[in-house]
Amino acid sequence: MKKVLAAIMCIFLAAVFVTGSFGTSVKAESSVSFSVNSFQDLMEKGDKNFEAGNYNEAIKNYTAAIELDSDFADAYNSRGATYLLNGDSDNAIKDFTQAINLNPSFGMAYANRGQAYVEKGEAAKALAEFNKAIEVDSTCALAYNNRGALYLNTGDTEKAFNDFNKAIQLDPTYAQAYNNRGAVYGNAGDTAKAKADFQKALQLDPNNKDAANNLSKMNP
């Protein structure tokens, strides 16, 4: 089956708490690919259900797509992201692993699997996954952002700041990376730069609740 790739960003949030009054969260995404006829229809239905928060239905859609083409790494990655948002880290890891088996250079799948390990409280495994994602795909802004959030949560502010900067450099439209960098500035007492980053995040994504909450804490 011929596959035509199209980039779609799927979002899930996992709260990361840092010292001080500025919360941050990481965003993981999955690239979703399209084919023709029923396979494409199923993937599109999965995407729509995912974005609407209908995770059980999205899982059914992606599963049906996988039954049509079990060699399509993107479908496993998308279903894994849905499992993760639905609170099923174990099945998410299985799907990300299968995506990686099918495509060993799939940086985003490593980054997503790393986020699943974050959810399970396995920081060392998560860090190894983020590092691998960057190794196989040095342009994966997601991996830098998520690794930065992990560093921030474990108290390594300098590495976190560098990773958020890199994520923004790779993708200047990455709203969550601006929010996360703003949290670093806020905790360091640089309110002007923090506010600028939160505002930039909201400019790029008006529905970014993390940035809105962080900005509101600066303007009580």
What does this structure look like?
The protein has a single domain, classed as Serine Threonine Protein Phosphatase 5, Tetratricopeptide repeat (Alpha Horseshoe). It has eleven helices and four strands; from the N terminus they run E-E-E-E-H-H-H-H-H-H-H-H-H-H-H. It has helices spanning 37-51, 55-68, 73-85, 89-102, 107-119, 123-136, 141-153, 157-170, 175-187, 191-204, 209-218, and strands spanning 4-5, 12-16, 24-28, 33-34. The longest helix is centred in the first third of the chain and has 15 residues, at 37-51. The radius of gyration is 17 Å and the shape is globular.
How does the SSE layout of this entry go?
Blueprint: E1 4-5, E2 12-16, E3 24-28, E4 33-34, H1 37-51, H2 55-68, H3 73-85, H4 89-102, H5 107-119, H6 123-136, H7 141-153, H8 157-170, H9 175-187, H10 191-204, H11 209-218
Helix pairs in contact: 1-2, 1-3, 2-3, 3-4, 3-5, 4-5, 5-6, 5-7, 6-7, 7-8, 7-9, 8-9, 9-10, 10-11
Short overview:
By secondary structure, the chain is mainly α. Helix content is 67%, strand content 6%.
- The CATH class is identified as Mainly Alpha
How many structurally independent domains?
Answer: 1
Helix share bin: 55-70%
Shape: globular
Task: Let me know the largest β-sheet.
Answer: 2 strands, antiparallel
Order of helices and strands: EEEEHHHHHHHHHHH
Instruction: Tell me the β content.
Output: 5-15%
CATH level-3 fold name: Serine Threonine Protein Phosphatase 5, Tetratricopeptide repeat
CATH superfamily: Tetratricopeptide repeat domain
> Could you say what the CATH architecture is?
Alpha Horseshoe
Radius of gyration: 17 Å
By DSSP, the count of extended strands is 4
Low-confidence stretches: 1-36
